[in-house]
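Let us practice reading a record.
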Amino acid sequence: MVLWFYGSMVLWFYGSMVLWFYGSVVLWFTETNKALLINNLMQSIIHQTP
């Protein structure tokens, strides 16, 4: 009973840590890609105008 409780606590802890890590990585990746995308879009708009 105690072992099961401890195991579930450890599992929950590791699961939340992994989830938080992956979430932050994905968030950082999307933010970086968004910035690059906006930058490329602005560059193309600037180059298109005569």
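A brief commentary: Residues 30 and 36 are 10 Å apart (CA to CA).
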